[in-house]
Specification:
Blueprint: H1 2-13, E1 16-21, H2 25-36, E2 41-45, H3 51-54, E3 58-59, E4 62-63, E5 68-69, H4 73-91, E6 96-98, E7 101-104, H5 110-117, E8 127-132, E9 145-148, E10 152-154, H6 156-165, E11 172-174, E12 182-184, E13 189-191, E14 194-201, E15 221-229, E16 238-241, E17 243-249, E18 252-256, H7 270-283, E19 289-298, E20 307-310, E21 317-321, H8 327-344, H9 358-362
Parallel strand pairs: 1-2, 1-14, 2-11, 7-16, 14-21
Antiparallel strand pairs: 3-10, 4-5, 6-10, 7-9, 8-9, 12-13, 13-14, 15-18, 15-19, 16-17, 17-18, 20-21
Bound molecules: flavin-adenine dinucleotide.
Residues 21-27, 44-46, 48, 50-52, 54-58, 176-177, 202-206, 223, 225, 256-257, 296, 298-299, 321, 323-329 line the site of flavin-adenine dinucleotide.
């Protein structure tokens, strides 16, 4: 009897708060949230180049096509910056760079739309009212640009590398989760001897293979981009004009990205290349060299909102997905919402809660999308 009690005590002592599957922006931010809350975790990740490592890393709460704020934009950015900054101070390295975005106008009439938008509540914190009529060096457009302030870029691959490097061997496993090896009990889950109160799936487009959550309408949107060398382009800002051009280092720029919902592979395509070339042809009048052409799938959802919540039957299986095109901006506050939901039973905002797709689970044969 005593041996059993002792065994049970050791079992409980070794129980982690969460197993996290996937280390992209979702997994990283959820783990940072757990560190903040002083909860321990175990991460399982394939280590394969994911959407996050292909992203430009732009953190922008405005919608520059429509001159509006993005959904929950102000709340997301207010939480995101201190969240990243606190990890920066913890390990004494910088990952977040403040950089304005110069939005080039297609027509001079857009200048008027910009001026009106720049005086609106919330947007006025980001859109500078003053319009500039000169172009930056190397930019072809001649209709002027507006500057977006208080935005920037997260060096996503670097933060993921540093975070992984700081993990202990008892916190990280570099492999694809074998779903059949996961033991699910009412009060805990066990994976190859690792015990946790719950498991949180942060698998990006990998969700499609997840046997518990693949009923959710993750659509996926492929993005292709270039890394270009362009010695004459300015490195002081992000340029938006058909595509984004973002400074990465000496003479190196990220340029993209395309959107395609038909092709769900990570392969680069001739069509994607032609599209990017035509956008750059319209935007740049400076020589450049293509150094790399990449592609990845953004985890987008049919209603364009994130996916957070618990499995309808197994109450210790959770999901954190659907970051779409704005993972850098949204993942920090979404991590807090998910933590509060799991640990404090606080309700999730309905727009992100997966129970909005309850019928997809209960009537899987019906065509929903
Ligand atoms: C070209 C491009 C440009 C983008 N630019 C921006 C941008 O500028 N700003 C922005 O905010 N967003 C951008 N995005 C979107 C952003 O990349 C996504 O919102 C975000 O990366 C999604 O993060 P995630 O963690 O959900 O998924 P991912 O980054 O794909 O990470 C999922 C991880 O889970 C792992 N995994 C999956 N299944 C398993 C399993 N069974 N076992 C173990 N590991 C598993 C994968 O290997 C991967 O490491 C861009 C996306 C693309 C494609």
């Amino acid at each position: 009897m005593e041996t059993l009690a002792l065994f049970f005590m050791i079992f409980l002592q070794n129980m982690k708060h969460s197993i996290i599957v996937g280390l992209g922006l979702a997994g990283l931010n959820y783990a940072l949230q757990l560190q903040k809350e002083k909860k321990d975790f175990f991460i399982i990740d394939t280590g394969i180049k994911n959407a996050s490592r292909n992203a430009a890393g732009i953190c922008n709460p405005t919608v520059l096509k429509r001159y509006t704020m993005s959904w929950y934009g102000s709340e997301f950015i207010e939480y995101a910056l201190p969240h990243y900054r606190s990890f920066e101070s913890k390990i004494n390295e910088s990952f977040y760079q403040d950089l304005p975005i110069h939005k080039y106008f297609n027509r001079t009439s857009e200048q008027n739309d910009w001026s009106i938008a720049s005086h609106k509540k919330e947007l006025n914190k980001f859109l500078e009212p003053q319009i500039t009529n000169n172009s930056n060096p190397g930019i072809k457009r001649k209709n002027g640009y507006g500057s977006v302030q208080n935005v920037g870029r997260l060096k996503v691959s670097l933060i993921l590398d540093r975070f992984t490097k700081n993990l202990l061997a008892t916190e990280y496993l570099n492999e694809a989760l074998d779903y059949d090896s996961l033991e699910i009990d009412d009060n805990h889950v066990i994976y190859k001897g690792i015990v946790a109160q719950q498991i949180v799936f942060c698998e990006g487009y990998g969700l499609k293979k997840n046997p518990w959550f693949n009923y959710l309408p993750l659509i996926g949107s492929k993005g292709e981009y270039f890394l270009i060398k362009a010695p004459k382009l300015s490195r002081k800002q992000i340029v938006k004009g058909g595509v984004f051009i973002l400074p990465m280092g000496t003479d190196l720029f990220w340029a993209g990205a395309s959107f395609s919902s038909d092709d769900k592979t990570n392969e680069i395509t001739e069509k994607g290349k032609e599209w990017l070339l035509s956008k750059l042809e319209n935007l740049l009048d400076t020589p450049y060299e293509i150094i790399y052409h990449g592609a990845s799938i953004r985890p987008t959802v049919s209603d364009r909102r994130p996916l957070l919540g618990e499995h309808p039957i197994h109450k210790n299986l959770y999901i954190f997905n659907g970051l779409g095109t704005r993972g850098v901006l949204m993942a920090p506050l979404l991590s807090k919402w998910l933590f509060d939901f799991i640990s404090e039973k606080k309700e999730l905002p309905q727009a992100v809660a997966i129970n909005r797709f309850e019928t997809y689970f209960s009537s899987p044969k019906k065509k929903h999308v």
